[in-house]
Structures are given as structure tokens and as C-alpha cells.
Amino acid sequence: MITDGALARLVRASADRTAAAESEVCDLCAAPVPDEHAHLYDTGQQEVRCVCRPCSVLFAQGGAGDGHYRLVPRRRVRLPRVDTEALGVPVGLVFFVPRADGTVTAEGPSPAGAMRWEVDAAAWQQLAATCPQLAGVEPEVEALLVNTVHGLDHHWIVPIDECYRMVAVVRREWRGLSGGGRIWPALERFFEDLTERP
Q1: Are 187 and 180 in contact (CB under 8 A)?
Q2: In this model, does residue 12 exceed pLDDT 90?
Q3: Model-level pTM?
């Protein structure tokens, strides 16, 4: 479970919308960042970090940081239905993250944060062969986000920070053993608010 850095701040901000925007700072230089700011993925710590505009420019071409930090892209692509059954994940709300080493992880939200398990990489490659957009998913920083709970049919390629934002929604709204009555409307709003972005 990821508990430090930008994800922890994202969870706290989702739980308490009264937090002042000016309290957000760049995790590299400590400069204030606006509400809409870029993120870096820290490959060593496996967490997302907030970054100001000047610092994000350093990582735009992937050369800075010797691969330790990767700039999280902003694109969001809605896909037609993707048959993820072959990936062997028995849940309807999950995101799949290809890794730089060729492995693929599936992560699902829970009241305690993201639960992670490994997916058969060959099965992912076969799925990517049937859906060409999946072959272009950037390792570590983009994911296939799927929601088929309650008859929904959402399949997206999104930045990894959107996945963690969804995890934060689950943590904020979960009540009791089964999630309670607030969780599903909140998740529906999350997916309704997703828009395509090149």
C-alpha cells in the first residue's frame, strides 16, 4: 500500500475539501503548486509526487533523474469494451499497470488503499494484441482502468494519478463492511467526470 507523498496528500484532500490549495508544494523544490499541477512517478518508492511547472519541464523528455522519476502523462482515452477476463482478475473495479520490467500489476481499491497483485504478462500481451491502444500504455505512469461493477462498462487508459484519485474516493466514502450507500454514487460521479484528453 502506498501511504507517503502525493498519494497521502490526495487522500487527505479528498477527505477534507477545506484544505487550502496553497498548502500544496512541489515535492522536489518546495515551491507552491496550483490545484492543477503535474505529477512525477517515483520508480524507487513506487509513489506519485507533486511537481511544479519548472521542475516538470526537467522530466518532459525522460532524460533527467536517470529514470528514477517519470513525468505522469495527462492523456485519457476512453476505450471500447476490453475483455479483461483472460487476465484472471475476479473484480470489476481495477486498474492494470504495465511495469518497465515487463510485469503487469492489477490494483483494486479498498478501504485501506490499493491492493496489488501480479497479472500474467503473456495474458496482458495477448490482450494488447486485440486492443492496439493498450500496446501504447506507458509503463509505470499509465494504466488500463476498468469498472464493470453494477452493470457499468467503463474502460479507460488514464494517468496513474487518476487511478490513485479513484482509490482516494473509495477510502473517503467507504462505510462498514460492504462500503455503504455512499461509495457507489461517488464512484459513478468519478467515472462520469472522466473526459478524454489527448
Answers
A1: no
A2: no
A3: 0.85
